[in-house]
Amino acid sequence: MVRSVTSFGRSGLSDWLVQRVSGVILLAYFLYIGAALIGGVDYLAWREMFASTGMRVFTLLALLSLAAHAWIGMWAVSTDYMTERLMGPKGNVLRIAFQIACSLVIFVYVIWGIQILWG
Amino acid sequence: MLQVSIYRYNPETDSEPSMQDFQVDTGGKDLMVLDVLELIKTQDTTVGYRRSCREGVCGSDGLNMNGKNGLACITPLSEAVKDNKLVIRPLPGLPVIRDLVVDMSMFYAQYEKVQPYLQNDTPAPAIERLQSPEDREKLDGLYECILCACCSTACPSFWWNPDRFIGPSGLLQAYRFLADSRDTATDERLAKLDDPFSVFRCHGIQNCVNVCPKGLNPTRAIGHIRNMLLSRAT
């Protein structure tokens, strides 16, 4: 049993499940957006689409899924490559710095996204 | 003449590893790679490698041949050689002791973690613990593993985290005991696997399936473990 305090759900199974479910939500969202774009939208139609509560909730769901998905993915990347085994003690510093930077960027995107949707 | 390039490294005398070229007369026969190594040994007795049964049972001569892991004794030249060239390296990702001999300690430590032995807390029967043919069938494709380490050393997740990710070989063995109807420690076994590294570093790229000399499928076994964890924890 390997303990970790920075993984998304503190459990491998939970991270795995969140990664899969959020992936499906993102796929559904981008298929929907893609279909709208291929169908051709002008500014007014686009504005009207995002004015509906349903679309805003769906977009927020996709945004939160993206945040979780990105965190789990970037966390796995950082614990693969930025480790003491591969880089010596500076790997630990780099990994923690990278994880903090990622979480800040994700946080900013989520807040920014909410602001755009309901601003 | 077959061109063979062999990884050489003796930590006592060499500052770094190097490749040494040999010309081998195979007599036009489709030899096994191990036979070629034996022929090279007659040219240079200092070439170090492990071998024992020479028939794919003991798992000693796992090597990287032209970029692909496998057992030298059951890999014919016709399968390994490209453009009359054969490059032989030790299994990747493990520390080299000398030439083609690697230190398997990390690999064995992961094997030990899964407690690869039957655990049963019920009183032992007079003769033996019986198993139905159907239950016995569930162990097919699992018990055949010979621990040659070809799969785990072909797995990038094992390269990056050999101390935390159990690896395809260890997980195949873990499932071999999880699937055994005579084992009663299923819950304890599963509880030890539910962290972000032990099982879930497997991203399903199936290098293990691609190289297994016994034709086993660790990725499928890992999927079964994941499903067992999922059905218990949701």
Any idea of the CATH topology of chain A? 3 helical TM bundles of succinate and fumarate reductases
The ordered string of helix (H) and strand (E) elements of chain B is: EEHEEHEEEHHHHHHH
Assign the CATH architecture of chain A: Up-down Bundle
Mean pLDDT of chain A, to the nearest integer, reads 94
Radius of gyration of chain B: 20 Å
CATH architecture label of the largest domain in chain B:
Orthogonal Bundle
SSE string of chain A, helix = H, strand = E?
Answer: HHHHH
Number of strands of chain B: 7
Largest sheet of chain A: none
Based on Cα principal axes, name the global outline of chain B. elongated
Biggest beta-sheet profile of chain B: 5 strands, mixed
The average pLDDT score of chain B comes to: 96
Overview of this structure, please?
The complex is a heterodimer of chains A (119) and B (234). Chain A is mainly α and 119 residues long. Chain A is 84% helix and 0% strand. Chain A is built from 5 helices and no strands. In chain A, helix 1 (12-39) crosses helix 3 and helix 3 runs antiparallel to helix 5 (89-118). Chain A is elongated, with a radius of gyration of 18 Å. The termini of chain A are far apart. Chain B has 234 residues and is α+β, with helices and mostly antiparallel strands. Chain B has 2 domains: 2-102, Beta-grasp domain (Ubiquitin-like (UB roll), Roll), CATH 3.10.20; 104-233, Fumarate Reductase Iron-sulfur Protein, Chain B, domain 2. Chain B is 31% helix and 14% strand. Chain B contains 9 helices and 7 strands. In chain B, a hairpin with a 2-residue loop joins strand 3 and strand 4 (68-71). In chain B, 38% of the residues are buried. Classes of the chains: A mainly alpha (119), B alpha+beta (234). Chain A binds chain B through residues 1-4, 7, 11-17, 76, 79-81, 83, 85-86, and chain B through 157, 160-161, 163-164, 191-201, 226, 229-230, 233-234.
